[in-house]
Amino acid sequence: MKARVDSISNPSGSDFFQIGGAGVSYGTYTKDKNGLVPGETYRGQARSYCDPNGGAWKSVTWTSLVYWTQPVVRVEGGTAIANLDVYPNPSRDLFNVTFTSEDVQDLEVRVINVVGEVVYTENLQQFVGEYTKSIDLETYTKGVYFLEITTNNGVVNKKLILQ
Q1: In 3D, which of 117, 107, 108, 106 has the Cα closest to residue 146?
Q2: What is the pTM of this model?
Q3: What's the CA gap between 77 and 52, in Å, rounded?
């Protein structure tokens, strides 16, 4: 399987990557989407190959294009956390969390269950730049959880669904 992602405004910047190989089966595949520009519209598509090296046989066409605009999230007070993404959501176990802090700031990343119990916490002191973390909730009860990111000036919340 090959997949590609590119920016609508800059299609020459396509990012190709290969999935799988001989005797390897992937039910679901995700690729980190770090470095995408908040507010920019992107498109992605895939095509299957029989040979793990992308050899002679391949499907005739790419899949239909999937379009999305990379989100921008700002908390009250002007402090920005941009490019916040949680995927896959819903998930059976792992949630990938990515965001960018535009300013140097102290952050606390937490996952909270519906009764308010903290099941994951991470403190980031004087953090700036891209954040990427896989949070494993496999051992927790299936249901709704909340990702909470506390900054110097506010809080960002995102609902997580564990199936």
Answers
A1: 117
A2: 0.57
A3: 50
Q: What is the pLDDT of residue 81?
A: 82
Identify the residue whose tokens are 């899949």.
Answer: 63
Q: Which among 24, 47, 69 is the end of a domain?
A: 69
pLDDT at 72 over 70: no
Task: Report yes or no: 131 and 101 within 8 Å, Cβ to Cβ.
Answer: yes
Q: Of 16-25, 71-80, 138-147, give the range with the top mean pLDDT.
A: 138-147
- Select from 69, 92, 110 the last residue of a domain: 69
What is the C-alpha to C-alpha distance for residues 94 and 86, in angstroms, rounded to an integer?
10
Give the whole-angstrom CA distance, residue 3 versus residue 110.
32
Cis check for the bond before 52: say yes or no (omega within 30 of 0).
Answer: no
Which residue reads 């920016």 in tokens? Answer: 7
CA distances from 62 to 46, 48, 66 (A): 6, 8, 11
As for how many domains the chain has, the answer is 2
Radius of gyration of the chain (CA): 18
